[in-house]
Design a protein that fits this description.
Chain lengths: 230, 230
DNA sequence: TTGGACTGTTACAGAACCGTCGCATAGGCT
DNA sequence: AGCCTATGCGACGGTTCTGTAACAGTCCAA
């Protein structure tokens, strides 16, 4: 993982317009983006940048996306990096070939940028627990996803599962205001129907837990908008 | 989003004169414009160009605007693109039909170009509320939409939700004079009935907040016209 | 099965905010 | 100057939003 919890993504796409759009959105979502417009550069950049995730266009001059994918999945030191393939063709055949080659997910053009973001995040979440040493920090709060433990001022806090996920989400982007709807999406899951007020209650519980050993309230309420950390 | 943060708009209008005027104005306002004069081309261009927003005429030969709208809102990958419908008819029936079809906003001809611009911007804001790193600045006022924070001379200001939205609107186009009606539309949202004097009160409150730590009044009153920033 | 931990919903109180009014004042025109 | 209109501003009642406690249902382990 990149420093400061900002995940590094390697974006490989030969079409400049599409690449720019994607890079912009990825950066807006808090990714650190490295770009390449061909497979050869991509291979070099993987070693150089050690990205957390790779978004890879299928069709490219010289070394194709599928070839890059195959090579990366053969090398032990790069095998663990999640790869999302982009393809203009919708045929099922390609999808299967893509996944067989080792891609972890597959998005067909024209894709929704939002969908791609969601998939990227999902892949990161999937890989993250195994990534040792990833510790989210914000002021005196420390969160270790691996051991599922949260400390505040070096004291262990006891959080329920929902409180934990909620805190993870907030800590991934401190300062950013999340609406109740966004939090429901990110913490509870997309297609779960629960009242938005539920978010308030859990924020309250999280606050209580975070302040159980003293210390100021680190969660900020933005009236009419949502919540943020700090 | 287009390069350099330039939002891409797809303009679909069969009447050449109107289309040209609109395209001109949109470009002058910083949009990257793609044009189509019928629904079929529009559908193709959506996939090709991946516009950030679509301005769509209601009446068109072959595939009508409402049909284009319906189709786009059915496809998951295009559903997220905001659509503003243009119509020559003012009947309420049409308005309702338009919104039912999934259009995000609706402007009746003859429309004010400024109003249309403002609405387009408002839609973009709605879809892309996060635009990271994009911090609005004007003189010593700094506004970060992501963290929902406002600073003046590096001091944090406390604004209510309406004051905040009002300031965002003004800061997006510093120097431009907004009428009270425009501000009501953009800040409060259309189809909200409140007295235009309410705008005055909130401008007053905004001024107070902005000057709470000293500094000159950055809001300009244009007698008989409205307000502007700077 | 029992008990405990956790969750989602609801109700209620307090706080923050909103829209309107009335009046004072400033601006522009003759 | 004198008049008229537009604007600034304080006050007030009403509304909305948020924090919290209480409660019932679920799940799981012992």
């Amino acid at each position: 993982m990149g420093k400061g919890g900002q995940p590094k993504v390697l974006l490989v796409e030969d079409e400049p317009a599409q690449r720019t759009v994607l890079a912009y959105n990825l950066e807006a979502e808090g990714f650190a983006v490295t770009q390449a417009d061909n497979g050869e550069d991509a291979m070099l950049l993987v070693d150089e940048e050690e990205p957390d995730i790779i978004i890879l266009d299928w069709m490219m001059p010289k070394v194709s996306g599928i070839e890059v994918c195959r090579r990366l999945k053969m090398r032990p030191e790069t095998r663990g990096i999640p790869i999302i393939m982009l393809s203009a063709r919708a045929e099922e055949v390609d999808r299967i070939r893509g996944l067989e080659t080792g891609a972890d997910d597959y998005v067909v053009k024209p894709y929704s940028v939002l969908e791609l973001m969601a998939r990227a995040r999902a892949q990161l979440r999937r890989v993250r627990p195994s990534t040792a040493g990833v510790v989210l920090e914000h002021e005196d709060i420390r969160l270790d996803p691996e051991s599922h433990r949260v400390y505040r001022a070096d004291k262990v806090l006891k959080l329920g599962p929902t409180e934990f996920k909620l805190l993870v989400t907030l800590m991934e982007r401190p300062g950013r205001v999340f609406s109740r709807e966004q939090l429901l999406d990110l913490v509870w899951g997309r297609d779960i129907y629960v009242d938005t007020r539920t978010v308030d209650v859990h924020v309250g519980r999280l606050r209580k837990s975070l302040m159980s050993h003293g210390g100021a309230d680190p969660v900020r309420t933005v009236r009419g908008a949502g919540y943020s950390l700090g």
